[in-house]
Specification:
It contains nine helices and two strands, in the order αααββαααααα. By secondary structure, the protein is mainly alpha-helical.
């Protein structure tokens, strides 16, 4: 996701990997008080939280927020909706499977979480309808929503909503996404430096 947002506005960027151990060290904690990722550095500005980073980039560089004030406000609303309404149940299923999967109540809880995800995705699918993007042209709201929906893919639930699966596929087909994905794949598969 971090690559997608910078590439979409045509800005150069540098990716710095952070190990799980490094995320808890003082240097990283100074940038992200919760010891998580992502962080974003631009000169002496340091930001954390995906939504804040996307909003900053979209506000600073043209291409991700519409010029029209009302359309701009709606795009920003979709950023918040992705993070505050759609993402929580999707993250809940990840936590239930990987952090709570060994608990005796986990198997009973998973179908309840899946139903919450289906409910939200059903609402989103109805709102999207046959439209290509959430509100006219592709915006930061779509970028954030697609990033969130990608988290639902491993559960298989996203495929139950063909409109949303096609929406995500359109986002992945964007040239900026393709470039960023290729760069991320190359970065992840590169040989570590000899040392």
């Amino acid at each position: 996701m971090g690559l997608f947002k910078a590439d979409e506005v045509g800005q150069a960027y540098e990716v710095r990997p952070v190990s799980f151990a490094a995320m808890k060290e003082p240097a990283h904690m100074a940038m992200h008080p919760f010891g998580q990722i992502p962080t974003y550095e631009e000169g002496d500005l340091v930001l954390f939280e995906s939504g804040a980073i996307i909003f900053h980039i979209a506000s600073r560089y043209p291409g991700l927020l519409p010029e029209d004030a009302n359309a701009r406000a709606r795009a920003i609303t979709w950023i918040f909706a992705a993070l505050n309404t759609v993402e929580p149940p999707i993250l809940e299923i990840v936590i239930a499977k990987f952090q709570e999967g060994d608990k005796p109540w986990s198997k009973e809880r998973l179908p309840l979480i899946a139903d919450r995800i289906r409910h939200r995705l059903g609402q989103l699918s109805a709102r999207l309808g046959e439209a290509e993007w959430l509100d006219g042209e592709f915006s930061a709201g779509d970028l954030m929503m697609i990033s969130v929906l990608l988290r639902a893919r491993p559960s298989g639930i996203l495929n139950e909503f063909p409109r949303l699966a096609a929406y995500v596929a359109r986002g992945e087909a964007r040239p900026a996404y393709q470039r960023a994905f290729a760069a991320q794949l190359a970065f992840n598969t590169a040989e570590p430096p000899a040392g």
